[in-house]
Write a structure and sequence with these properties.
298 residues, binds copper (II) ion, 22 strands, 1 helix, mainly beta, 5-stranded mixed beta sheet, Immunoglobulin-like, globular
């Protein structure tokens, strides 16, 4: 039932999908790159250098910086009139109602009515080799006949992604990775969580987005984004995001959103990048816009 752009103009709901951004919008432009930039973190009191090309290494970060910003809708108009019935994934009334009325489900593009903040933009550093500890492994839940959260980050080096089912009905979670291991399995009501990759010896190899669907409920749509370190964030309902404890240095900052515009130009969503330099204890602001032309840095 994915007609054109699924979109909801919704008022902010405290706590919902929040990325925990406490950034406050304060901008601090780094004056000069610290010595030993390029992500090795070996200058300015950052993390010690990691072996180039090796796996991510956890190391103490002192005087780390912050990269924060807001993603907002910048199109001439919001592409689709909001449905007053629309709700976020996980906010449906109950599973049966949700499964019986899939048209209520809005997932691909969430724009806040007041601020025009865009939820679910993934922002991450590319190629950072050492720093803070990996975050706790994520869980992708089948909840009220949608995936919750709608976009889930999975660190490549962490234990597998748990896939659970909180619904009183069965699901069949189907992942569509291009490079990582396939996954296609039913998960019954009350069943213990499954894990991707199924073979725990199998590591996720490729960073990037993986489409998720359910073979039993065609409207169910979600994304897993594989990142090989903990420096990532998913924009909350207000479009805000924040990467914290970043070792001082220069990095490639990447941003991704699934929105493909009316013409479906980007099968794997829209992705952009730019260089940023984080000074010791500093804050870099990296605001974004999203429109039918895709993502752009502001
Ligand atoms: Cu399902």
């Amino acid at each position: 039932m994915k007609t054109l752009p699924s979109l909801v103009l919704s008022s902010l709901v405290a706590g919902a999908l929040a990325a925990g951004c406490g950034c406050g919008g304060k901008t601090s432009t780094p004056t000069a790159p610290p010595a030993g930039g390029g992500g090795s973190g070996d200058g300015g009191g950052g993390a010690p250098p990691a072996k180039a090309g090796g796996p991510y290494m956890v190391a103490p970060v002192s005087n780390g910086g912050t990269i924060s910003g807001t993603a907002t809708w910048s199109g001439a108009s919001v592409p689709v009139a909001a449905s007053t019935k629309s709700t976020l994934p996980g906010e449906m009334r109950d599973a049966k109602e949700a499964c019986d009325h899939p048209s209520n489900v809005v997932q691909e593009l969430l724009v806040d009515a007041g601020s025009k903040g865009v939820a679910n933009v993934v922002v991450f550093l590319k190629g950072i080799s050492s720093g803070k500890a990996l975050l706790a492994p994520a869980t992708l839940d089948n909840k009220n006949c949608v995936f919750h959260p709608h976009v889930v980050i999975q660190p490549a080096g962490a234990a597998g992604l748990k896939i659970s089912n909180s619904d009183p009905v069965g699901h069949n979670t189907h992942l569509f990775p291009k490079k990582n291991e396939d996954f296609n399995s039913k998960i019954d009501q009350g069943q213990a969580p499954l894990v991707w990759p199924k073979d725990q010896g199998e590591k996720l190899r490729a960073e990037g987005p993986v489409k998720v669907g359910c073979d039993l409920h065609s409207w169910m749509s979600g994304w897993i984004f594989v990142v090989d370190h903990p420096y990532y964030a998913v924009a909350g309902r207000d479009g805000k995001f924040s990467l914290t404890d970043v070792p001082p240095g220069s990095y490639e900052l990447h941003a991704w959103h699934e929105w493909t515009g009316k013409d479906k130009q980007w099968p794997d969503g829209s992705r952009i990048q730019k260089s940023v330099t984080v000074a010791a204890g500093g804050t870099v602001t990296a605001d974004l816009t999203l429109s039918d032309s895709g993502l752009a840095w502001k």
